[in-house]
Amino acid sequence: xxxxxxxxxxxxxxxxxxxxSGKTSQSSRLLSYLEGLGHSVExxxxxxxxxxxxxxxxxxxxNESQLxxxxxxxxxxxxxxxxxxxxETKLRSGTTLIVDRYSFSGVxxxxxxxxxxxxxxxxxxxxxxxxxxxxxxxxxxxxAERGGYGGERYEQLEFQRKVAHSYQILRDGSWxxxxxxxxxxxxxxxxxxxxxxxxxxxxxxxxxxx
Length: 210
Ligand code: DGP
Ligand code: NA
Ligand code: NA
Fold this sequence. Notes:
The chain is an alpha/beta fold. It is built from nine helices and five strands; from the N terminus they run βαβαααβααβααβα. Helices cover 48% and strands 13% of the residues. Strands 2-3-1-4-5 form a five-stranded parallel β-sheet, with helices on both faces. α2 (52-61) packs antiparallel against α3. The radius of gyration is 17 Å and the shape is globular. 2'-deoxyguanosine-5'-monophosphate (DGP) binds at residues 19, 46-47, 61, 73, 76, 100-101, 105-106, 109-110, 152, 154. This is Thymidylate kinase.
């Protein structure tokens, strides 16, 4: 019903960026911050390597298996789809989710390989729309200097440059960009404000969209 005021709910907050942009550390800092303020909040990440699909993805990333580029793209997407209903339940029950990577990673990484960008977007249609996308912006060269990559498939400077370019194409006015090569504390400070704002808006009953 259109005129029915929707209930208070949690916010879907997504962190995006290159490998070694600091998303994982910032996710856990934001989690502690919001918990400290008494909010119900969970930290999630994609790919979720704990599911059957996630294990296939993990083995691909470790170069232990080879898959066609389209096939792995669809697996990453399936990994988000298998969490969709739980995600909706959590948000509706008032829990905020801080998610380390989501659909934009799917499109950015696969289109960086040369797959058609519209084809890449298609399987993401119908997943829940983030309330806030935080882009941790770092030049690929700076990210590469940060204590080295872990050796997974995509963790190479040349490829990360292409991913950065794809993110640039995807980025729109709704994303909030944070300079991620500042010290971690400064990055955190910027993120805190943005996140709190989004949590408050959703508590007031902003409706959930696809
Ligand atoms: P992470 O666990 O955040 O380090 O992610 C593992 C790697 O997989 C990282 O290089 C980013 C990449 N990745 C994450 N999500 C997707 C996706 O949906 N599609 C593709 N092709 N790559 C992804
Ligand atoms: Na990684
Ligand atoms: Na990460």
